[in-house]
Structure formats: C-alpha cells, structure tokens
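Is it possible to get an amino acid sequence alongside its tokenized fold?
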Amino acid sequence: MRLLIMGPPGAGKGTQAAFIARSLGIPHISTGDIFRANVTQGTQLGIEASRYMDAGEYVPDSVTNAMVRDRLSQDDCNPGFLLDGYPRTPEQVGELDAILHSDGHNLDTVIELTVEIDAVVARLVKRAQEQGRADDTEDVIRRRLELYADQTAPLLAIYRSRGILVQIDGLGDINDVTGRIFAVLGVEL
C-alpha cells in the first residue's frame, strides 16, 4: 500500500503512522526524519538543506522533493510506504505524482485524521505544560491549527477529487482510531 496520512497538529498522526506502517510492514516516511538523516549523514542534499535551516529559512521544494524522491527509490519502499508530512503544497502533490508515476504507481489512500479543534487545543496545551513548552500557548496553538487548515485545504480537495481521501475521526482511544483506519483500509488488526 502507498499511503499518505494527514491531520492537524495533535491529531495523533505520528502515533497512528508508526503503528500502521509497522503492522503493514512498510516504512513510515516522515519528512522531518528524512531531513535529519540527510543532515546527519552529510549528504549533498543534507548540506544544501542545512544552509537554509541554519539561516532560519524554509528548505526549498527542490531540495525537499529530491530528498523524498531519493527515499522513495530505496528498496524498502517497493512494497509500499506511509508518507507523513509530505506533500505540503499543491506543487509537491504534482512532484509526488511524478515520482510515483515514474515507477507505474499511484497513492492508494490518503488518510485524513479529523479532530474537534477545542479538544486538540486542550490536548496540545496539556502536552505543552507537561513538556515545559511555555511558548506553546493556546493562542499559538490555535494559530498553527488555522495555518494547517488554510495550507492543507487545497491538498485535501485534490485527493478528494481523485476519490482516494478518507476521513477518520482522530479523537478517542488510540486503539479505536487505529481500528477505524484499518476498517477503511480493509485490513484486519
């Protein structure tokens, strides 16, 4: 299966992605992990990305796309993968399509974890307090959620028009959410 998981901060994407990928025997590919691996390994792409990150700038799509293309070309991705954090823009959707089409593939399913905003804000505020993140105030968290909604709405529309977007209620017990995801994927736990 070639999957993409999306959802706002605090929706449980990381938790669900790790479990789904492990259960299906496919890699969980996070762009944050790809960036860190390339920087740590001192790859040419990592060196280039570091220049931008060290200056506090966004890493350009060209570098991000090249890192994702390289990661998806690795043998462990042959049976499938679960992407987390990419694509983030309509342009990156096009690049991902090109990467997959070059190997004769498409995304099978895009999972969107939906959540009630006030419940996620409460969850993130609590987590910030537990982890001592004084800068993660309710206002900051709500702003991040607004940005996520604005930036991902076009991507969700693209995947909805292709008929591969499934929306899963991301609130509740972790195992219940996983069960809902697996039911939609037609996979038994």
